[in-house]
Automatic annotation (TrEMBL):
InterPro entries: Aminoacid_DH-like_N_sf, NAD(P)-bd_dom_sf, THF_DH/CycHdrlase, THF_DH/CycHdrlase_cat_dom, THF_DH/CycHdrlase_CS, THF_DH/CycHdrlase_NAD-bd_dom
Gene name, Swiss-Prot/TrEMBL: folD
Enzyme Commission identifier(s): 1.5.1.5, 3.5.4.9
PANTHER family (alphabetical): C-1-TETRAHYDROFOLATE SYNTHASE, CYTOPLASMIC, C-1-TETRAHYDROFOLATE SYNTHASE, CYTOPLASMIC-RELATED
Gene3D superfamilies from the UniProt entry: Leucine Dehydrogenase, chain A, domain 1, NAD(P)-binding Rossmann-like Domain
Any one GO cellular component localisation term in the record: cytosol
GO molecular function: methenyltetrahydrofolate cyclohydrolase activity; methylenetetrahydrofolate dehydrogenase (NADP+) activity
Entry binding sites for NADP(+): 164-166, 234
Source species of the chain: Nibribacter ruber
Described purpose of this protein according to its UniProt entry: Catalyzes the oxidation of 5,10-methylenetetrahydrofolate to 5,10-methenyltetrahydrofolate and then the hydrolysis of 5,10-methenyltetrahydrofolate to 10-formyltetrahydrofolate.
UniProt domain Tetrahydrofolate dehydrogenase/cyclohydrolase NAD(P)-binding: residue ranges: 138-290
Family: Belongs to the tetrahydrofolate dehydrogenase/cyclohydrolase family.
Quaternary data: Homodimer.
Name recorded for this polypeptide: Bifunctional protein FolD
Length: 293
């Protein structure tokens, strides 16, 4: 069994990005600039956004963090986004999810300039990804593709089973894995809450990607011998032995599943760190006008 080291891969990608930024600056260009909007005080979201800002500093990007109270109205938030759309200094914009219930996430995405949508969530980027046109790919699926590529994992002709159909992970990764690109060329099955006999499907998976948010839901009996298992779950579960009172758990029962796998991602240290690196990569692509000219 080989552990897919997301931390190491993420560091390698960030070094490549930093070298690219240094070259841009050497040529007299300006640093890529990411703006991040955070609404409210959710602990996980604050950690992720802070980590994004720190990662920007590490690779030499400029960043702007806009943190609003969860009392901000939808109208005010949309107006802020319009402002950033017009700001020529800012290359990429993300709105950290989840948003408070009184704000319509779809409206927020649609008001964003799709050319700055470095999360790849705007319908234009989603549509272009499906059509196989240049687009910003959502960071987590993009990170999974990087892991498969950098570990030279064969995907062509394999059966990939995805559990979860979210717009952030499950749906886009299932599309990317089915495309005629490498990684890709898989036969893909998407499973969700209404799938009958989930284990029957997962046991057929050569590549199993789990993005549900239910700690330990994939048990050893659900996994084929030699499968590649990608665990996207990162749920905070209570743990009195830790100073902070919790630890992260993935969707896969790692201890019992790992011995059956050819490759597996740990949690933490698997897919999560790549989410941040691929956001940086998209921001660099935005600054270089690689996607939209
Ligand atoms: N606007 C967005 N919102 C959300 C996204 C996203 O891509 N764009 N994805 C997730 C959260 N997320 C980034 O935003 C994210 C999740 C996990 C990690 C990560 O590094 N996880 C580490 C552990 C970190 C920890 O100790 O808490 C790991 O798995 O090893 C980074 C980013 C939902 N919202
Ligand atoms: Mg994630």
């Amino acid at each position: 069994m080989i552990l897919l080291d997301g931390k190491k891969t993420s560091e390698a990608i960030q070094s490549e990005i930093a070298a690219d930024v240094a070259e841009i600056k050497k040529q007299g260009g300006k640093a890529p600039h990411l703006a991040a909007i955070l609404v409210g005080q959710d602990g996980g979201s604050m950690t992720y956004v802070n980590n994004k800002v720190l990662a920007c500093e590490r690779v030499g990007f400029d960043s702007t963090l806009l943190h609003y109270e969860d009392t901000i109205s939808e109208e005010e938030l949309l107006a802020k986004i319009e402002e950033i759309n017009q700001d020529e200094n800012i290359d990429g914009l993300i709105v950290q999810l989840p948003l408070p219930k009184h704000i319509n996430g779809n409206k927020v995405l649609e008001v964003m300039d799709y050319k700055k949508d470095v999360d790849g969530f705007h319908p234009v980027n989603v549509g272009r990804m499906v059509a196989g046109l240049p687009a910003y790919l959502p960071a987590t699926p993009y990170g999974i593709m990087q892991l498969l590529e950098r570990y030279n994992i064969e995907t062509k002709g394999k059966h990939c089973v995805v559990i979860g159909r979210s717009n952030i992970v499950g749906t886009p990764i299932s599309i990317l894995m089915s495309k005629c690109t490498i990684p890709g060329e898989c036969t893909v099955t998407i499973c969700h809450r209404n799938t009958v006999d989930l284990a029957m499907h997962t046991r057929m998976a050569d590549i199993l990607i789990v993005a549900v948010g239910k700690p330990g839901m994939v048990t050893a009996d659900m996994v084929k011998e030699g499968a590649v298992v990608i665990d996207v779950g990162t749920t905070r579960v209570p743990d009195a032995t830790r100073e902070r009172g919790w630890r992260l758990r993935g969707d896969v029962d790692f201890d019992n599943v790992a011995p059956k796998c050819s490759y597996i991602t740990p949690v933490p240290g698997g897919v999560g760190p790549l989410t941040i690196s691929m956001l940086l990569k998209n921001t660099l692509r935005a600054a270089k006008k690689e996607v939209y000219g």
